[in-house]
Write a structure and sequence with these properties.
It is built from 10 helices and 13 strands. The protein is α/β, with parallel strands linked by helices. The strands form 4 sheets. The chain has a 5-stranded mixed β-sheet, with helices on both faces. The structure holds oxa(dethia)-CoA (UT7).
């Protein structure tokens, strides 16, 4: 039995509506120059009113099937990393099992914010190594704009909606060289979703699901933590940092990517990002950046790719893989 995990296909989806920075000038005190210079964001996609995270996942799954000519009806586990599910229950993964016509599969959603996609790959690798599963679909998908505080100018300009997914299959030789996971739970107060409960007619209802962030604190933690985990992943992969062809940190802010490169000496030209065109899409940002790198012809077969997600928790997870082998 094969127990090596191999990432074999990628798909992504973003909603149709593109929103540029000028949109915000009419709702809060801001301007295009501030947003571009402080974050690197130029545009982002907003989901339609009746478009939810599960719909974005279906778009990403279609892209995966059509662009890679693969079948997913024999997938035996679905993992959806999201902090913006359509509902708390049922899970998006269960909805996808039904809507994608996958007959026999395990299905769970996981919550690891912007590190969710990398966490999903770590879990898929584990399921395959255990010999219990052979074909796992991992999604990172968010509709953050449905949970945005439109009165908070430091955060509302950041977020966008999108989805990405990969197929992780059992194979004689794998292409995941190393993984890392971790948590700094004491920073939970710096990035969280408020779930205020209020009694209405004796019933407990959630009245406010909004994202709150202490941007400066998360920025500092992110740069220090990710720089450290780049070293851990390199060592675990038995590689030198110069062997890494592409580095894909979570796209939270272009200045975080620049700070990471200046702190570690990693060349910025070898990074891939989705922040400039998609904003911060949390768990979807890494697959969106990778897909863009592939579409632009940058990423080639055999390239070694380091991805590190980080965010609310605070949590992080990273993966080094060889693309297409
Ligand atoms: O995805 C999960 C992980 N998240 C992150 O990694 C986010 C990390 N943090 C960040 O990306 C940045 O901290 C932000 C983009 C969120 C904020 O950028 P910043 O450079 O840290 O800004 P700041 O909050 O320190 O604010 C600087 C100034 C303030 O004005 P004063 O006090 O210096 O006069 C803000 O009021 O910029 C002002 N400001 C704005 N001005 C125009 C804040 N938001 C805006 C705005 N437009 N939208």
């Amino acid at each position: 039995m094969h127990t090596q995990a191999k990432i074999t296909a990628l798909g992504t989806y973003v909603p149709e509506r593109v929103v540029d920075n000028h949109y915000f000038e009419s709702i809060i005190e801001t301007n295009d120059e501030w947003i571009v210079s402080r974050t690197g964001i130029r545009t982002r996609h907003f989901a339609a009113e009746n478009e939810f995270t599960s719909h974005l996942c279906i778009g990403a799954a279609k892209s995966l099937v059509e662009e890679n000519n693969v079948m997913i009806d024999d997938v035996d586990f679905i993992i959806v990393a999201t902090v913006t599910p359509d509902q708390t229950m049922p899970s998006i993964a269960s909805q996808l099992q039904d809507k994608l016509g996958i007959a026999h599969t395990g299905a769970i959603d996981i919550s690891a914010a912007c590190a969710g996609f990398a966490y999903g790959i770590v879990l898929a690798k584990g399921l395959i190594a255990a010999g219990t599963h052979r074909k796992v679909l991992v999604f990172g998908a968010e509709t953050l704009t449905k949970f945005t505080n439109w009165e908070d100018r430091t955060s509302c300009i950041l977020f966008g909606d999108g989805a990405g997914c990969v197929l992780v299959e059992a194979a004689p030789t794998g292409n995941i060289l190393s993984v890392v996971t971790g948590s700094s739970g004491d920073g939970g107060k710096d990035l969280y979703m408020s779930n205020m409960r209020k009694q209405v007619n004796g019933v407990d209802i959630i009245t406010d699901n909004k994202i709150h962030q202490n941007g400066r604190a998360v920025f500092k933690w992110a740069v220090n933590t990710v720089a450290e985990q780049m070293k851990v992943l390199t060592q675990r992969s038995k590689l030198d940092i110069n062997d890494i062809d592409w580095f894909i940190p979570h796209s939270a802010n272009m200045r975080i990517i620049e700070a990471l490169c200046s702190q570690t000496g990693f060349p910025i030209e070898k990074t891939l990002e989705s922040i400039s065109t998609c904003g911060n899409t949390s768990s979807a940002s890494i697959p969106l950046a990778l897909h863009r790198g592939l579409r632009e012809g940058k990423v080639k077969k055999g390239d070694k790719i380091m991805m590190i997600g980080f965010g609310g928790g605070l949590v992080y997870a990273g993966v080094v893989m060889e693309w297409g082998v």
